[in-house]
Amino acid sequence: LSRLRRTEPSVRSFIHVADAAAEREAEELDRRIASGEKDAVGPLAGVLVGVKDNLCTANMPSTGGSRILDGYRPAYDATAVRRLREAGAIVVGKTNLDEFGMGSTTEGSAFQVTTNPWDDSRVPGGSSGGSASAVSARQCVVSLGSDTGGSVRQPASFCGVVGLKPTYGRVSRFGLMAYASSLDVVGCFGSSVFDTATILSVVAGHDKMDSTSSSQDVPDYASELVSLDLLESKPLNGFRVGIIKETLGEGVDTGVVSSIKDAASHLEQLGSVVEEVSLPSFSLGLPAYYILASSEASSNLSRYDGIRYGRQVSADDLNEIYGESRANGLGHEVKMRILMGTYALSAGYYDAYYKRAQQVRTLVKESFKGALERYDILISPAAPSAAYKIGEKINDPLAMYAGDIMTVNVNLAGLPALVVPCGFVEGGAVGLPVGLQMIGSPFSEGNLLRVGHIFE
Ligand code: GLN
């Protein structure tokens, strides 16, 4: 807690810090342990977690990074948060994000700009930038984020931490503010694969409050990790790795490409076979993602009408309430997405945009499926560059969207992907971290975490 208090003025990971409440909870825990209630306190007893502010937390502000939800205190915890609390974890605060998850730098928050702990003139990535910077700056042990198109993996890469986007449906979305429901997943950050695996086991699993949550068994991921025994020099013998060709070409920083190639040779040294694999539909994923995500957002965000949640406005009629609350409550990027999505879904344009994007989604899914029949995992960078400067892309939305090229396809296909730090490029005072993305078949989180742990 003292580290959090010391670092927060420069990092600004949290929209809401509950440090005093966390301290009381920790004291209460100490008291219970001292009085012999040791078994009653759960496997994450006393572990400080940060929670992205688009996940509902009972009696704590939950803004989604938006003015329109200023003052909103949900009456319930999101399922993932409830499960962490039941395991004994202490929610130390709500982390900053791009408004409703729409953005790649966290600059789109209505409240504050979060900085990258490796270089405070740079962005932490986004949209879960606060959750990534909080773990990177060791303000909390682990954190929750959400990933619709890369929002866990890209900030993990920018901040040099581990980030996991689970299979669609692996973690309940109940209590997650919907952005694009067919793509949204709750994801985990940790400073090690072990920590990330530990919280995934706690938050994953079927939930009757989310009909898209899977009832597949949840393994104890952390206990399945095998440490790399240095005497066994080839722990990945027989393992097949496909390196996605389209992710190492034009537009990708040379330092990033060489970090990924070094990671590939490391995987080879550990015994695996690494081959280049081409996914021809890869570049089509980006425009398809932005059509689909905006379309779903335009429908999902209609709930923010100025009546049901948050900020209230006084107005004479319904249209005025809608107009007032949305004009003043929503930021520029969110308005733009709603307009784009409404346009793409409108009767005359549906076939040209939404329907075609859905067709591309099917192509992307099929090409991943084919490749994952031949390889155990696919690898790529998590982002085309390391963290860039605050303000650099804020006025160029297309350049910002282009930065999501490495991650959006995985959401279109609903696959799990793990990002682990794999190298550095020049920049800042001590270099800037680069993340390796490992993509697997549905529900192969255990496999990804095992490889990530050996790699680490
Ligand atoms: N940057 C992407 C977007 O703005 C992804 C965001 C996310 O995963 N929430 O849509």
Automatic annotation (TrEMBL):
Localization annotation: Mitochondrion; Plastid, Chloroplast stroma
Catalytic activity annotation: L-glutamyl-tRNA(Gln) + L-glutamine + ATP + H2O = L-glutaminyl-tRNA(Gln) + L-glutamate + ADP + phosphate + H(+)
A cellular-component GO term for this protein: glutamyl-tRNA(Gln) amidotransferase complex
Active site: 52 (charge relay system), 127 (charge relay system), 151 (acyl-ester intermediate)
Domain Amidase: 1-449
Keyword terms, alphabetized: ATP-binding, Chloroplast, Ligase, Mitochondrion, Nucleotide-binding, Plastid, Protein biosynthesis
Top EC group: ligase
Family: Belongs to the amidase family. GatA subfamily.
Name of this chain's protein: Glutamyl-tRNA(Gln) amidotransferase subunit A, chloroplastic/mitochondrial
Gene transcribed to yield this protein: GATA
Full-protein interval shown: 131 to 586 of 602
